[in-house]
Structure formats: structure tokens, C-alpha cells
């Protein structure tokens, strides 16, 4: 049985209004992760995902290497307590 982990990321840069959240959700479909992504009022994007630690690390790396790469200026990652989530959604 795999151990569940969860990660919280904040992305800074030109990350709103460029399809960032939709791209993150599309990337999530390729991994066994659940969670959500949302825009923050301060211009950042917040991502929280839950899953196996190795799967989460691979997912985060895929986001970093995606077409979003040029929009990300700064990233802040925190390991957080696992949470109950189904699927991967965009929060408003």
C-alpha cells in the first residue's frame, strides 16, 4: 500500500490569464493525483495535490516542464497533510 502525501505550490509570474489552470489540470490527468488549482487575488496561482509521493514529484516536474514553463518566475513548494479529494478541479 502506498503512503499518501500532499503538496501545496504557489506559482508566481505571468500565471493568470494564460490558461495556466487548464494546463495544470490537463497535466494532472496523466498522473494518479487528485486536488485542485486556483487563481489567487495577489496574482499567484495555488495548486494543491494529493497522491503517492513519487507520483506527486513526477506531476510537479511535468508542470515545471510544460508549456507553462516560460510563465513561471518563482515557485514555492510545501509538503502538507494529505486531504480527501476526488479528481482534479479548477476552483474559482
Question: What this model shows, in words?
Answer:
The protein is of the alpha+beta class and 92 residues long. It has a single domain (4-81), classed as Alpha-Beta Plaits (2-Layer Sandwich). The chain has helices at residues 20-28, 53-65, and strands spanning 4-13, 33-39, 45-52, 72-80, 88-91. It is globular. The N and C termini lie far apart (34 Å).
| Poorly predicted runs | none
CATH architecture: 2-Layer Sandwich
Task: Count the beta strands.
Answer: 5
Q: Report the major sheet.
A: 5 strands, mixed
Q: Which range does the strand content fall in?
A: 35-45%
Topology as H/E string?
Answer: EHEEHEE
Shape: globular
Side by side, the strands of the main sheet go: 4-1-3-2-5
Rg measurement, Å: 12 Å
Gap between N and C termini: 34 Å
**How many distinct helices?**
2
Mean pLDDT, all residues: 95
Structural class: alpha+beta
Count of distinct structural domains: 1
Descriptive terms for the model:
globular, 2 helices, single chain, five-stranded mixed sheet, 92 residues
Amino acid at each position: 500500500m502506498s503512503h499518501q502525501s500532499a503538496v501545496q505550490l504557489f506559482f508566481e509570474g505571468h500565471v493568470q490569464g494564460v490558461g495556466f489552470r487548464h494546463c495544470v489540470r490537463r497535466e494532472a490527468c496523466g498522473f494518479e493525483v487528485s486536488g485542485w488549482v486556483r487563481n489567487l487575488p495577489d496574482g499567484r496561482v495555488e495548486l494543491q495535490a494529493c497522491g503517492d509521493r513519487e507520483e506527486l514529484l513526477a506531476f510537479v516536474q511535468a508542470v515545471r516542464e510544460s508549456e507553462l514553463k516560460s510563465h513561471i518566475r518563482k515557485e514555492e513548494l510545501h509538503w502538507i497533510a494529505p486531504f480527501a479529494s476526488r479528481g482534479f478541479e479548477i476552483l474559482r
